[in-house]
Amino acid sequence: MTAEARKIQHLYHRAGFGPEIANFADQKKPLADHRRRLFADSQAKPERLSVVSENDLKAAAVLKMAALGDEEDKKEMVKDIVRRGRELNLLWLDQMAGTKAVLREKMTLFWHGHFACRVLNAFFVQNQNNMLRSLALGKFGDLLIAVSKDAAMLNFLNNKQNKKNSPNENFAREVMELFTLGRGHYTERDVKEAARAFTGWNFDQEGQYVFRRFQHDAGEKTFRGKTGNFTGEDVLQMILNDRQTARFITRKIYRYFVNEQVDEALVEELSKSFYESEYDIGQLLATVFAADWFYDPKNMGCQIKAPVAYLTGLRRQFGATLTDKEPLLFAQKLLGQVVFYPPNVAGWPGGKSWIDSSTIVTRTLLPSVLFRDADLPMEAKDDGDVNTEFLARSNFKLMKASANWAGFVTAFGGKPETETAAALAHFLLQCDLSSTNARLVLQNADRTSNEALIRSLAINIASLPEYQLC
Amino acid sequence: MISRRSFLQQSSLAVAGSLLVPAFLKSLKAQALAPDDKILVIIQLSGGNDGLNTVIPFADDLYYKARPGLAVEPAKVLRLNDHQGLHPAMEQLQSLYKDGLMTVFNSVGYPNPDRSHFRSMDIWQTASNADEYKTTGWLGRYLDASCTRQCQPHEAIEVDDTLSLALKGELVKGIALQDPKKLYANVHSPIFEKVARAKPTEAAHENVAYLYKTIAETSSSADYIYEKSKIQASKAAYPASQLAKRLKTVAGLINSGVASRVYYVSMSGFDTHVRQEAQQSRLLKEYADGVAAFVRDLQQQKRMDQVMILTFSEFGRRVGQNASNGTDHGTANNLLVINGKLRKPGFFNAAPNLADLDDGDLKFQLDFRNLYATLVRKWLQADPGTVLGRNFDLVDFV
Description:
The structure holds two protein chains of two kinds.
Chain A: H1 3-15, H2 31-41, H3 54-66, H4 71-98, H5 102-114, H6 122-135, H7 140-148, H8 151-156, H9 170-180, H10 188-197, E1 201-203, E2 209-211, E3 221-223, E4 226-228, H11 232-241, H12 243-257, H13 264-276, H14 281-290, H15 307-318, E5 321-322, H16 327-335, H17 357-371, E6 401-402, H18 405-412, H19 417-428, H20 435-442, H21 450-462
Antiparallel strand pairs in A: 1-2, 3-4, 5-6
Helix pairs in contact in A: 1-2, 4-15, 5-6, 6-7, 9-10, 10-11, 12-13, 18-21, 19-21
Chain B: H1 4-10, H2 23-30, E1 39-46, E2 55-56, H3 61-66, E3 78-79, E4 85-86, H4 91-98, E5 102-109, H5 117-126, H6 138-146, E6 156-158, E7 175-176, H7 180-187, H8 190-196, H9 206-231, H10 242-255, E8 262-268, H11 276-300, E9 307-313, E10 333-338, E11 346-347, E12 366-367, H12 368-379, H13 384-388
Helix pairs in contact in B: 4-11, 7-9, 10-11
C-alpha cells in the first residue's frame, strides 16, 4: 500500500466513517480528489430522518387532549414514544451506514455529542437532529442560535421553567460552560444575568419556538462587563463576539478530528481563522483536511473509535447487510454509546473511557459474531428507567450480517497468502502489525478456498486491538 | 486451554513508552487480602426506590394523609422502633436489624437534587456536585489512589456483564462479570485466546498499548477469579432471584480470598410510577431475602465484621402518591448499612420531617458524600480528599 492510500483511508476515518470495500478501486485516485468529493457530496440537500410525521404528531396531540387521565391511553402513548425512540436511533444508524454525504453525517454526530440532549419526545428529537444536519457545515453562530431555540434543548435544559421572577439557570449555564466558552470564562453573575435574558424562550406542542413575552425579563442586565436590556439573542451574540468561543470550539474539533493531544499553537492559529471567517465550520474543516500536519503519522491510527463510529465503520468497510437491525441497540448499550441517549449534557467523554474489560471483550468478539456464527453471551444493564429498559433487551443471537466478500476477493484475491494478509491489514487497519500478529492472523485461517481465506483473514484482523483505532 | 504460565511467558508486554509493565504478573501470586483488609459491598437499587414505603414512618399522620391508597397500614408494618418500621415484605431484613447488624440513615441526599435517573445515578456514582460532570467513578478513583504498584482490575469487581461508571478510574478500572465461568468462557473462546497472544509493534501509540493492557488484564483477572471461585463455591442456601445469585457469587469470591476490596451489584425495577404496591413488594422481598441469605452465609464464614454492605438508590420518591397509585421521582432517600461491628446499630438520625418539605419532596439531612468519605477513610484506608475531589466531614458510624 502506498503512503497516499493510507492518507486517503485516514481522511475517510476522520471526515467520515472509514473506507469501504465497494470503493476500494478509488484508492488509485489522488488524495485531493477524495477531499473534493467529500465536500461535494455533502453539499447535496441534507437527508432528513423521519419516524414521526406532522400528521402523527397532530394525532398524538389530539389523543393527549382527549385522554387526559385515561390509564390505558397514557400507557399506549408511553409505549409509542419508546418505540419511536428506538426507530429513530436505528434510522440514524442506517443513514450513517448508507449515506454518500459522510462528512455532513459525521459532523451531525459530532454536534449531537457537543449539544448533548436527551428527551422523550421523538418528534422534537427528530427535528433537532435534522436541524443539526442542515446547519452542521455552516456558520457556528447560526447553529448556536438554532440549538438555543430548539424545543428538545429548551425542554432538556428546563428553560420552560425559566420565567421572569423565578429564573432557572440550567440553560444559561450549560450554554456557556459546555456549548461555547468553557469553564472559567464567565462568572456566576453572568449565568444569572444570561438566565434572565433567556426567560420567555419557550416552545409549543408542535416543537416550534415561541417567545412568551409576559415571561420575559426585559429589564437591565449586566453581562460580562456590559450593561443593557439584553435579550437572549444579544447574549448569544456577545458570546460569539468573544474569541474564547472560537478557541473552545476549535480545540474540541481538533481533539475529535485530529488528535487528543492538542498542538496548542496550531489550535490558536486555526481558531483565529475560524473567528475571522465568522465561525465557518466547513471552512475550518477544509483547512484541517488539506493541511500537511493532518497527515502526519503521529496523527494516524491514534484515536480509539467511538462505539457508533466503530459499528458504522464495520458496516461500511465490510459492505455489511444486517439480517436484523434491533441488535444494534443492544450493541450500542454494551459498548457505552447509544445515539439520542447521551449520559448527560456534557456528552460522551470518549478516548480511553470507551474501553474496559467488558467492552474489549465485546469489540474483540463482534466481527466473529457478525460474520461467523460465534456467540456473545452478554447482557446489558437495566438502568432502572422504564423508558430505556428496551435497551437492555438482548436478542444478540440475531446479530448476523452478510458481507461483500466478492468485493474483498476482487480487491485482495489471487495473491500468495502472506501478501493477501498484508494487503488486508493495510486496508482494515490504520497502524502497522507486528510480525507476531502478521503470523497470528494466518494461523488456522480457512484455506478451503480463496474467498474462505480472505474471509477468515479479514475477520481475524478485525478482531485485533489495532482495529479499534483509526 | 492456555495455562497461565505459558500465557505469562508468551505475552511479552514490554512495549516501548507504554503503560504496560510485567511487574503485575509477578505480584498476582503475592496478592491476597490481609486478614484485616475490609471489604465493601455496594448494592444499587436502580430506578429510584420509594424510601417512604421501605422504611415506613407509621407513627406519622402526614404519611397516611399523603398516601391514601398507597400507605402501608400500621398493623402491617414490621416495627423497628416507635417511629419507623419496614415494609411487610422485608421480614428477613427486620431480623438482621434485630440482631444489631444494620444502621439506617434517614434522608440521605445532596444539594440541588436532580430528579433524572441517569443524572442522579451519575451523581451518586461519581460523587460529583449536582452541577458537575465527572467522567470517573468514586470507586474507580479509589483504585487509582490505592494502587501503588500496577493495579489489577479485579481489585474492584462488579457482578454484571458491563462495568458501571462507579468503578471506572482515570488509570484503573474495575472488572465486570456475571459469573466467573462466563467471563472465563469468553476470554477462552478461540478468537479471544488468539488475540490474547497478539503483540503491538515497538512504536505503538499509547492508545494501542492501553488496549493491549486491557486485554491482558482482562484475561489474567478472568483466570484468577475463575481459579479462586473453584476453591470455595458458596454452599449456603440462597433464594432463586437474580440478586441472590449475584450475592452468592460475591460470597464465593470473598470466601475464596480473592484480592478484591470492593464488590458492586445492581438490582433494577424500582421506577414505580404506576401501581407501585405489587411491584415494590416483590422487589423488596427479593432484596430482603437475598441480603439475608448473603449475611447468614458470611456469618457462617465469620466474615461479617470484615464486610460492610451499603444499599442506596439514586433518589427517593415524592411524598404524595400520584394519580396512578404510584409515586413520581423525588429527592432524599434512606440508605442502609449492614455490618457485624457497627458503631451505631439502629437509626442513625431522625425520621424525615413530612411537615417540612421542599415543594412536596423530602429535604436531605445527610450528604451521601460524607458517608462515602467515611467509608473511603475508615473502611478502604484511602484518602477521601483525593478520591472524592475535596474534603468531606466523616460520619461516626464505622
